[in-house]
Amino acid sequence: MAITLEITPLKQWLKSPEGPLLISGPCGAETEEQVMSTAREIAKSGKVTVFRAGIWKPRTRPNSFEGVGSIGLQWLQQVKKETGLLTTVEVANSNHVAEALKHGVDILWIGARTTVNPFSVQEIADALKGVDIPVMVKNPLNPDLQLWIGALERINNAGITKLMAIHRGFYSFEKSSYRNAPQWEIPIQLKTMFPQLPILCDPSHICGNRELLLQVAQKALDLDMNGLMIESHINPDAALSDAKQQLTPQGLSELLAGLVIRKNTSSNKEFTGQLEQLRTVIDEIDEELLRMLMKRMDVVEKIGEYKLNNNVTILQLKRWMEILESRSASGALKGLDESFVKKFCELLHEESIRKQTEVMNNKALK
Ligand code: PEP
Ligand code: MN
Q: Is 192 found in the same domain as 237?
C-alpha cells in the first residue's frame, strides 16, 4: 500500500524571506545571557526566521551537560518577544511536549536519537493529538529510510500536517571527515516519495566541525532542499555541547553570504531549449543501457542453466574478483569514479545471482 502524508504547504503557515528557510541558534540553551545575545546578533542579519536551542539535551554519556530544562523556555519566550524570531526546541517525550506548549514554543523538533524509537515517537504523537503546531522530524541515527518515514507518519496520523523533515546525516562505522555521513541518496529518496514534504538540512550535525559547513550547506541547496538548520553560539569555543561545530553569529552571516541560491527552474528560453536537447540524449542513452542490461541478463540465464546441468555452484568467487578488478581498472581509464563502478558491479552481480538462483529453483520444481 502506498504511503501518503497529508502536508500543509510551508508557504501557507510560515512567513519567511525569499529563499531557503533558515533556522539557527545554539546547540543548547546554557544561560539567559548566552541565549539572548546569540538571538540578538542572529536577528540582525534579517535572514534567519527561526531560533533553535536545545533545552533537554540527549547526551551519549551521563554527567555531560544535559540542558537547562524548562527555565530555558522562558528565555525563548523572551527571544521571541524581543527579536520577533520564531522559536523551536527538541522534544523527546510527552512531558517535553507539554512544557514546550505551555511556554508557547512555535515549532517542535524530534531528534535523531528519538526518531529511532517508535515508542517515543508514538508517545510524542499521542501528546500532540488535537494540537496545531508544526513539527520537524530529524532522520534516525542509522540510515533507515523506513524508520524516518514511520516517524513522519506517526506524527502525521496525530493530525499534524505542518510537517517537515530534517536531514542531519547518519552514523557510520567507516571513518570519514564527517561526524555523520550525509548519504544524500536517502533524503533524495524521501523527496521522491513525498514531493510535497519540505526537507531541511542540518549541516552542523553532518559536519561536526566548522570547516565543512559551507560546502555541505551549498550541496543541500543544490539538491533543492527547502532550508537549513545551523548551530550558532555567541562564544562557540566555550559551548557546553557541540563546541567544534558551532559558528559565531558573525560566522553564520559570512556563511550565509557565501551561499549561492539557485532557482529550481529557469524561464530563459535558451536554457530550457538546451536542457531539453541534453535530456533527449540522456533518454536515448538510458534506453540503450537498459537494452544492454537485458542482453546481459539473457546471457546470465544461459550461464545459470549451464552451471545447473554441470552441477556447479552459482557463486564463482575467483571470476567475481576478476570482474571487479578488471571493470574498476577499465572504469578508471574512462575517468569513471571508482566507488561508483564498484557499486554498479555489485548491483549487477547481485541481480545475476538472483537470476541464476531463479533458474535453479525453477528447474528443481519441474
Ligand atoms: C541537536 O540538534 O542539537 C541535536 C541533538 O541533534 P541530533 O538529534 O541531530 O543529534
Ligand atoms: Mn547539537
A: yes
Residue-level length of the chain: 366
Instruction: Return the closest-CA partner of residue 209 out of 259, 175, 243.
Output: 243
User: Cα 342 from chain centroid?
Assistant: 24
Structural domain span for residue 211? 10-258
Together in a domain, 113 and 202: yes
Q: What is the DSSP letter of 54?
A: B
Final residue in a domain of this structure, among 223, 258, 293 = 258
295-321 exposure pattern, b = at least 16 Cβ within 10 A, e = fewer: eeeeebeebbeebbeeeeebeeeeeee
What average pLDDT does range 27-54 have in this prediction? 97
Q: Which three cell numbers stand for residue 47?
A: 535572514
Residues around ligand 2, an ion, CB closer than 5 A: 27, 242
Express each pLDDT in 112-151 by its tens digit.
999 999 999 999 999 999 999 999 999 999 999 999 999 9
Å from CA of 60 to ligand 2 middle: 12
Residue 361 lies inside a defined structural domain of this protein: yes
